């Protein structure tokens, strides 16, 4: 985890972006998001998390350890959750099942969602972003996520492939920063939507 000094008196801590890494590449998760840690500071405090190797090929959608890690990292505040690639379905599931933990959801180059992934249960503001040359998952998969989550924002980044956050960190970080700032202004969106339905 990233070790920041606590904010001084009268200053608020920046929002937290938890980057959920691909479970198959868990040991490399912190390095995979180095461009976000460097490029989003001081607007967002970037942390990384990946399921322990013993968890298998994918984080269990209702994994209590995942929810507890997000709760701990956020220090009691909802976080912005970034699910990249194969980690996107777990990020969606956490956002849908535990909406109080997730202020905003970012899905980058998402892999196909397994049947039963609760896209329609997400109430957090959601950004789906992919490279226009993503040959791993592809734009149609990303569009499926964006179409399944109510009011999701869908963005393609020119000149990027699957690892859009590495290949075009300038554009990726600009979208994430702007999106997080907007989502921070909508803290009661989940409560409002629930009471309206």
UniProtKB/TrEMBL annotation:
An MF annotation (GO) of this entry: hydrolase activity
Alphabetical list of SUPFAM superfamilies matching this protein: alpha/beta-Hydrolases (SSF53474)
Keyword list, A-Z: Hydrolase
Domain of life: Bacteria
InterPro entries: AB_hydrolase_fold (IPR029058), Carboxylesterase_BioH (IPR050228)
Keyword hit for Transmembrane helix: no
Database matches in Gene3D superfamilies: alpha/beta hydrolase
Protein name as it appears in the record: Alpha/beta fold hydrolase
Organism: Actinomadura sediminis
Organism placement in taxonomy: Bacteria, Bacillati, Actinomycetota, Actinomycetes, Streptosporangiales
């Amino acid at each position: 985890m990233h070790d920041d000094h606590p904010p001084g008196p009268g200053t608020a801590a920046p929002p937290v972006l938890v980057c959920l890494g691909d479970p198959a590449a868990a040991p490399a998760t912190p390095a995979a998001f180095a461009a976000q840690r460097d490029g989003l500071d001081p607007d967002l405090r970037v942390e990384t998390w990946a399921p322990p190797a013993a968890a298998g090929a994918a984080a269990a959608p209702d994994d209590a350890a995942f929810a507890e890690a997000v709760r701990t990292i956020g220090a009691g505040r909802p976080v912005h959750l970034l699910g990249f690639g194969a980690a996107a379905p777990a990020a969606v599931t956490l956002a849908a099942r535990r909406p109080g933990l997730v202020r905003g959801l970012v899905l980058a180059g998402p892999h196909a969602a397994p049947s039963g992934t609760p896209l329609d249960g997400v109430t957090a503001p959601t950004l789906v972003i992919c490279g226009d040359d993503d040959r791993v998952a592809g734009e149609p998969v990303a569009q499926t996520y964006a179409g399944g989550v109510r009011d999701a924002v869908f963005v393609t980044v020119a000149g990027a492939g699957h690892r859009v956050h590495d290949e075009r960190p300038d554009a990726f970080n600009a979208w994430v920063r702007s999106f997080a700032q907007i989502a921070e202004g909508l803290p009661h969106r989940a409560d409002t939507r629930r009471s309206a339905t």
